[in-house]
């Protein structure tokens, strides 16, 4: 497996739309309803999905598009910020370790190219596969977010994970 992250190209927009707006592709934990079909193109035309406050990269394995990783800047206080990150792996590529490796690569990228000391990721408490992937990628479970996210007509508990810059030295 030679996972890499790469910028989004215009020809990737249908793939991103599929991952974020097709209920058969988003997966149980990412389906939030149909999305504006023009939103991704507008964002891509604005900044290529790479900005100072966040971005999206394609997860690729050779010539295959595997999924996406995303991140956004969160203000911690007047003097600092941290990143919140997430990912979606296409259904045909799930369960093969791609998400673990992509999260590891994104954490390294964010620490290498910003002064942030913390990266957060969260998932629903019933998404055990994502919890395992985050732990394998070097993230530490911090706690349960009671009623932290609304999806499919009801509130769901979540689990919060983090990695700080010093954790990179301990990540396999």
Automatic annotation (TrEMBL):
PROSITE patterns: GNAT. Residues 3-166 form the N-acetyltransferase domain. Signal peptide: none annotated. Pfam families: Acetyltransf_3 (PF13302). InterPro entries: Acyl_CoA_acyltransferase (IPR016181), GNAT_dom (IPR000182), Ribosomal_N-acetyltransferase (IPR051908). This is GNAT family protein. It comes from Nonomuraea helvata.
